[in-house]
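Why should sequence recovery work at all? Because a backbone constrains its sequence more than one might expect. Tight turns favour small or flexible residues, buried strands favour hydrophobic ones, and helices have their own preferences. The token representation captures these environments compactly. In the example below, the structure is given first.
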């Protein structure tokens, strides 16, 4: 958060510096127009009587061209200074943030604050001196401020147009400055296989287990899986001992009677004994 506030303050501080140069431009323009106020009023008089043929503004154009050139030339110089400060604002912002970003915003802040100072100071000077050296100013400036509304309207329209262009150029200059910031580039590290640190050493080699094959005398190798068991076979399909026949299904009731448990088959003959002998005749 501290870095972010510091980065934003860079744009505002340099915007104030750029605004100071903009005030100088306003003073130069107004001073040049005020020094030629008589010529400007003659131009106004000639243009007002042009339709009636009472005025000829052509000889006056050559006298007012230097005023216009001084005004717009000073605008170009102060605009270039503003772009340089926007570039530095973007560069410093990227350096403070540690990444190449935010330069466009820093340049935009410099141009915005500088433009606001420029417009406000131009209005103040126009109210005091009633003159400016722009194209509209050389035909609307007066020594007593009688045409002040027209002079201010023409001046503000031009300043808003130039200010909008300056905002875009300032953001562009700030982005260029951020790309030139002295920031260490992070090298691109290719993905590689994980290597076990040397501190862990090597895994111990366990002795082979009897009956299991080993790989290189170390870890035992799992034996190959046994084949899948044969599918379930019915009792009729199982091999039968010799001399026996498989019972039919379902088996007879005495199939499960075993002689070992004292359960003779039901159809087996009863053993001979006194109880089973027929009565003597």
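From this structural description, the recovered sequence reads:
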């Amino acid at each position: 958060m501290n870095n972010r506030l510091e980065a934003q303050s860079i744009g505002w501080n340099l915007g104030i510096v750029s605004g100071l140069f903009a005030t100088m431009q306003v003073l130069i323009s107004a001073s040049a127009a005020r020094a030629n106020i008589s010529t400007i009023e003659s131009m106004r008089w000639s243009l007002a009587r042009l339709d009636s043929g009472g005025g000829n503004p052509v000889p006056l154009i050559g006298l007012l061209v230097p005023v216009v050139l001084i005004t717009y030339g000073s605008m170009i110089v102060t605009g270039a200074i503003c772009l340089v400060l926007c570039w530095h604002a973007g560069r410093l912002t990227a350096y403070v943030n540690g990444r190449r970003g935010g330069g466009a915003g820093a340049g935009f802040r410099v141009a915005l604050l500088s433009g606001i100072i420029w417009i406000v100071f131009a209005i103040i000077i126009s109210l005091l001196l009633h003159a400016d050296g722009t194209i509209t100013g050389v035909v609307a400036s007066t020594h007593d401020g009688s045409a002040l509304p027209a002079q201010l309207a023409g001046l503000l329209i031009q300043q808003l147009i130039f200010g909008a262009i300056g905002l875009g150029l300032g953001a562009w200059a700030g982005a260029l400055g951020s790309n030139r910031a002295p920031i260490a580039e992070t090298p691109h590290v290719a993905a590689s296989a994980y290597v076990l640190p040397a501190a862990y050493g090597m895994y111990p080699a366990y002795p082979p287990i009897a009956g299991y094959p080993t790989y290189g005398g170390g870890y035992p190798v799992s034996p190959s899986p046994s084949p899948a068991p044969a599918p379930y076979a019915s009792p009729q399909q199982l091999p039968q001992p010799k001399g026996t026949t498989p019972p039919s299904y379902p088996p007879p009731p005495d199939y499960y009677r075993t002689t070992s448990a004292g359960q003779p088959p039901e159809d087996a003959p009863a053993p001979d004994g006194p109880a089973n002998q027929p009565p003597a005749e």
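A few observations help interpret the result. Residues 92 and 121 are 28 Å apart (CA to CA).
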